[in-house]
Amino acid sequence: MIESDICIIGAGPSGMMAAISAAEYSKKVVIFETNTTTGRKLLLTGRGRCNLTHTGKPDEIIRAFKPFDRFVRHCIYEYPPQKLLNFFLGRGLNTVIEEDGCIFPSTHSSTDVNNVLIQELQNKQVQIFYGRKIQNIEKQNELFVVPTEKVTVSAKNLVIATGGVSWPQTGSTGDGYNFASRFGHNIVKPAAAIVPLIAAEKFCRDLAGLGIPNVTISCKIGDKKIIDKGPMIFTHSGIGGPAVFDLSRNIAGILEKDYQVFIDFLPDINIDELDRKLSELIAQGPKKTSLKYSRTSFRRRLRRQYAVKTIFPKSKSAR
């Protein structure tokens, strides 16, 4: 049996950072990871680029977590964005800021982010056991005992960093909820959030991969209208991207219902101004097709689709 101060279940970014922080206080740390590598989900984030943090001040970031802002407030103030950037900069990884305030590694590689964390774990002599699916955790004489097929660890403290149920292929299968409930914690039923939306309209498949830099997307639920703005992308099954993810976060818990989503592809121009511009174009070229008129406002693939169909017709819904 291996004795340790802290046993961590999960070697994603949360588990690795927890281990690094504990080791800085000379704690003996052991990590169990189901996968054969660390950071399986981290490597996929930001299309393989890994959005590390944002330029927003702590208060701005906390507000973005509503209605769960109170839960993250202490964490954000204790470890604000600049402290995270200093962590990676001090280990040789520079960052770049994009127009929307998102901060990425200057190499645009999530692998480099993961490698920094792995190297730091090695420097701090954190022991990692890979390919270990934890089936049971017991409490014996004030110690947490974690048995696996070939090794058993006893620890004074236990950190469950298994992630949620958002991406089972990466190891996020909800095990952490089961472990926590065994020790008397109340579990709030997970709801899909920060996810793409599935559309009833089939034309989205034809536009898959097409990104729109700025849209306003809205959804009316009862008397409440939810509006978000930002980039979006068409997917093989619907729509995704930052604006869609923000919308999905605000309607988490009702995603199992059908509802209508409305997209304004020209959010910076009002209907009167658009009408005036179209009238001018028609006057200049009365024989042009609608496809020609839309050239100045829409990307080509979207223009071709728009010329024959109404985007998200009222007779259907986006889910």
What does it look like?
- The chain is of the alpha+beta class.
- The protein folds into two domains: 2-182, 3-Layer(bba) Sandwich (FAD/NAD(P)-binding domain); 197-306, Elongation Factor Tu (Ef-tu), domain 3.
- The protein contains eleven helices and 14 strands.
- The strands form three sheets. A six-stranded mixed sheet has the order 6-2-1-9-8-7. It has a five-stranded antiparallel sheet with strand order 10-13-12-11-14. A three-stranded antiparallel sheet has the order 3-5-4.
- Helix 1 packs parallel to helix 5 (110-123).
- The chain is elongated and about 85 Å long.
- The chain starts with a strand and ends in a 13-residue tail after the last helix.
- Residues 290-297 and 306-319 have low confidence and may be disordered.
Question: Outline of this structure?
Answer:
This protein has 319 residues and is of the alpha+beta class. The protein has eleven helices and 14 strands.
